[in-house]
Write a structure and sequence with these properties.
The protein is an alpha/beta fold. The chain has a single domain (3-234, 264-318), classed as NAD(P)-binding Rossmann-like Domain (Rossmann fold, 3-Layer(aba) Sandwich), CATH 3.40.50. It has eleven helices and eight strands. It has helices at residues 3-8, 22-26, 44-55, 67-80, 96-107, 136-163, 198-223, 248-257, 264-267, 269-276, 303-318, and strands spanning 35-38, 59-64, 85-90, 115-118, 167-172, 227-233, 287-289, 292-293. The protein has an eight-stranded mixed β-sheet with strand order 3-2-1-4-5-6-7-8, sandwiched between helices. α4 links the parallel β2 (59-64) and β3 (85-90). The longest helix has 28 residues, at 136-163. The termini are far apart. InterPro entries: NAD(P)-bd_dom_sf, SDR_fam, TIC32.
Length: 321
Amino acid sequence: MGVISYFTGYRGATGFGSGATAEKVAKGISLESKVVIVTGATSGIGFETARVLAKHGAHVVIPARKLQNAEAAKSKIQREFPNARVTVLELDLSSLKSVRKFVDDFKALNLPLHILINNAGMTANNFQLSPDGLELDFATNHMGPFLLTELLLDKMIQTASQTGVQGRIVMVASEGHRYVPKGGIEFDKLNDKNSFQWITSYGRSKLANILHTRELASRLKEKGANVTVNSLHPGTIKTKLGRDFNQTSAKLLLFLASPLCKSIPQGAATTMLLAVHPCMEGVSGKYYLDCNEADCTPHAKDMKLAAELWTFSEEFIKSHP
């Protein structure tokens, strides 16, 4: 999908293009039996994703660092759809302890799990460390979702086996994965304050999302699990992602990108496609843009780097029990 396709809204192989919205993608699809977790669903494309899922009957679980924000999102959805099933739980993706507690809280609900949407993300304006001592972008955008997915995977595999309905994991990545250091992810420099740049810090965390997707897809296939995983770029959207920016370069980049910005309903379309549309049945390990499969960088196709990332992530998590 090129620039002309983007501006014309050209519909690709899926039947959808850049002009599609989450509502259009989900049209006619019943989700009455589905339980879905959507991280980052208190605002922006995450909220729109949760809203449309709830509209179509899904039981939506909204995790949030601030429970009052999750409750506000729940109330907003239920004002529009009084019968909507929405559950809120506490989760701070930058903290491995919080991720583990969220999974315990979710499992205590005794619900199945059909779809996991790792949508939450952040862009750190300055170098910061997570509660576990990892650079904050990488901790929040990759390490938290990595652990969350690992701890919920057995539940998803079990649900798919019992229901015969394929489970789906969706990773919201970014075209920002193109802006990384020469080595892609230099694991020994993740916590190097002196080399920190906001754009490459964000970029490597989004590259990690795509590599995580590819490696996980391979492992799920080896297991024979009836669960797929795909990643996507939602488009350039004016959301709260860059709310902490005060660097001139960041503000300028966002200003220049304004003419290319999608609306929030359009930004949620590709997520919705990967999560619920029948055309994605059996598709796994792919990267999508404007509701269609897209190309990504050589780093994002490097399975050796993907394996290294997996090993690094597992070792980091084991060192923070």
